[in-house]
Amino acid sequence: MLKDKNKFALCAKGQLAICRENIQKRGLEIGKIEMIDISLFGYKGFIYFGYQINEVYLIEVKNNINIEKIEEFKARMRMKSEITKPLQDDGYQATIKVLKVPEVIEAESLFWLTASIQNKGNSIWNALGSENGKYQINVSYHWLNKKGEILLYDGMRTPLPEDIYPGEEILVDVLIQSPEIPGNYLLRIDLVQEMVTWFESRGSLPAELEFKITSK
Length: 216
What we know:
Helices cover about 10% and strands about 50% of the residues. The chain is globular, with a radius of gyration of 19 Å.
């Protein structure tokens, strides 16, 4: 019955990057991602119970198996190493270019954009941080209004898919959550070393784009 149908996966809030990585590990293609609330019901003995889980990601998994993506993922996994300290001062330099964005973005929705990110510094950007996420280098963003005032400082995090050496350039699919209220906004995309600093604070130039957010 489900042989040729798309499937769906549920993912807890804060675990989206890990869920996405595990799905791609199996060579499957990810479709639309939504945030939903779900209600669960069941029996425990003779007692009927129910409870609600808020803000869970519903991930559409397309029924396409890509062998090349499986091999690419395995290769990238072998090139992930851990960083255990802040970068050197000249390591926080990046060139970020946004290459692909959706044509229409609705309020309070999740969307992907593709960014080209180049390491312009003199330090390796290791893809993994310590156990508690400290020192990990992620792609993130700020939302600003038309006046340049920051409305959201800490956006969702997208981890680096692999270690990036000085001079290297990669493409990253960056996950963004749009503002709740429709209107005109400025999106500022930057890198951040967790619990240390944003790259912009060390002189790196973030990428900026103007967006018109529509109502649902």
